[in-house]
Model the fold of this input.
Amino acid sequence: MSKKTWILLGFIVVKFLLQYHLINPIYDLQRDEYLHLDLGQHLAWGYVSVPPLTSWISKVIYLLGNSVFWVKFFPALFGALTIFIVWKAIEELKGNLFALILGATCVLFSALLRLNTLYQPNSFDVLSWTMLYFIMIKYFNTEKTKWLFVAAIVFAFGFLNKYNIVFSLIGFIPAVLLTKQRNLFLQKKVYIALLLGLLLISPNLWWQYQNDFPIIHHLNELADSQLVHVDRLGFLKSQLLFFTGSLFVIILGLYALLRYKPFEKYRPFFWAFFFTLLVFLYFKAKDYYAIGLYPIYISFGSVFLANRLRKGWKKIVQPIAIAIPILFFIPMYTIAFPNKSPKYIIAHSSKYKEMGMLRWEDGQDHLLPQDYADMLGWQELAKKVDSIYKEMPSPSQTLILCDNYGQAGAINYYTKEGIKAVSFNADYINWFDLEQHYLHLIRVKDYAEKDDEFSKTSPYFDSSVIADSITNKYAREYKTLIFAFTSTKININKRIKSEIEDVKNDR
Done:
């Protein structure tokens, strides 16, 4: 193997080692990860929460043993592939070894380390954005129409992973129209490629149609509960934090796209950067939605810096440029990753508050970052539900009903009894087994609604009791209650069916 290949492999190995090292074993999986893993047990062309690609990956994880190692492997893999694509983009732009090392260093020591700790669609989303932009570089460089069809395929897989990739097109198309590359739209094969992309995503679009477009309900719910708290100025500030150590490279890349003659044919990327950010700002998007925008600009900046350095400056500037992303990473190591215990975070809360990490989706500051609080209490919940389930009069006729998808998913992941919890929340509403006749109910419920639960549910059963609760005070689910309702003869299926219909009608 060549020297370049060995260096690239070294970056990939370091990437994997860091991803596994940056998570303290005190934490469980994160709330969303449990839902995403459960999708693999219910394969379909669409879901209330996400498009179908995540379910395919979850099925592979299940076949590999469903261990935490494999859950964390895939986001780390997508992060490593993002480094690889940036490397190949730099090669396509005729970058030398310094440019390759600088680009890989900038991507490695960035917000992707945080993003790639969680099994969510976001890691593949960044990869798909980077791949799509790389394919367009290939097209502008060669003008071979085969790359348009490759771009359509990449877009389709990105779309089937997370609809967020649509924003890349919204930003890129007007950018192309502003430059000499607008001739692209005069080629018939562009529209054939678009049809190919549409064909590939059509099963998901058809699923959305058949299910009354749950994505619209999801977006409306997101806008009402989370995006309403998004501050546009805060969004822009966050963009500066994702690639802090690489900002100078990204800025150089933007400058080069506007002023550097060899990059003239890539000019659409300059305008696409600003158009895409404007679209995100208009829709008050979450700050991390834009992370996929940046890696490709590191490619442009790395090549420009490498090509413009005068010989006398190389020995001074090159090591400094490579060191900057690493030096910025060192202080971030202690606060930006779930590698510290809750007690440590609370004792050093001022640092986390300054970074805005204690601000949750409700717009308020809390003791821990939301993702961290969402990674606690789940094994405790599953263990206690297991214990209660075994003590029920007839466990096989017991329904486990949870308030939210995190509770249901965690129980399904950790349980030793083979039970399957459900919820009226997210995709679980479609996964009730109503052929089973239920007499008893284990209800996982928010503490604040305990009195309401007793008044509403107790009349349907012979006995009602609060069997246990979550005691981890650092968990987002702290004080969550576990009710046990038992009956000798009343079948609760009819009531469950009625509630399912009510929830679906509300959507």
